[in-house]
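Annotators were shown the component list below and the corresponding predicted structure, then asked to write short factual statements about the assembly.
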Amino acid sequence: MLSRLYQRILGNPFVYEHVRPLVVGGVDYTTAWNDLDVGPDEVIVDVGCGTGDGHKHLTRYKAYHGFDTDPIAVDYARTRTAGRPNVHLHARLLVESDLQTIKPDKVMLGSLLHHLSDDEALGLLGMLARTPNLKRVTTVDNTPLPGRYLNNFFVRLDRGQHSRTAEGYMALAERAGLKVTRTLLHRIHPTRGLMMLFLMRLEPPAAR
Ligand SMILES: C[S@@+](CC[C@H](N)C(=O)[O-])C[C@H]1O[C@@H](n2cnc3c(N)ncnc32)[C@H](O)[C@@H]1O
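Structure shown to annotators:
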């Protein structure tokens, strides 16, 4: 019960947007969005879009589809993106038929994989590996690091209970049939961040 209350507090949009950055020294997902490198003719799926933080970074796209299982976060994202053209927000799980219909060029999994069990992550990554015309997926997640006690303390405080080592995240992507073409360990905020994030760029197998 206490743990459910803690999860609700951390999931509150105000806490997520304003309190969490104060605690971890700032939150800036520019590195991940730069890695996804969205072009003006590209269709984007953002799984675990949360409160719509991606819209701080996305300046051009053909269409944006955000999916999140938390309806409160999606409502916040709806307010934040009101008036922006071609933004579609869905308060539910992404399913394979969505990918077949939307046919995204690129997919963002921003701070999502550490919320998913191995089976859930393999299901999602496997769907992405089978998506026609997909060019790139960028993932970014917290990770425990040897001797980095403050980082590891924040990892334990996180709502996501499936944080993994870099090798653990890469093994999941490869088991799902995706190629890991770039990795980067970077601070959650370039100058003040007290916690580290592990980024992966994933691409589908060449011959499908
Ligand atoms: C740490 S937040 C990240 C939000 C956003 N990507 C960002 O970078 O600010 C993780 C989000 O994933 C959502 N989530 C967890 N499991 C999910 C799933 N299976 N499908 C979609 N969203 C999920 C949570 O509701 C939460 O909003």
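Statements collected:
1. The mean pLDDT is 93.
2. The two ends are 46 Å apart (CA to CA).
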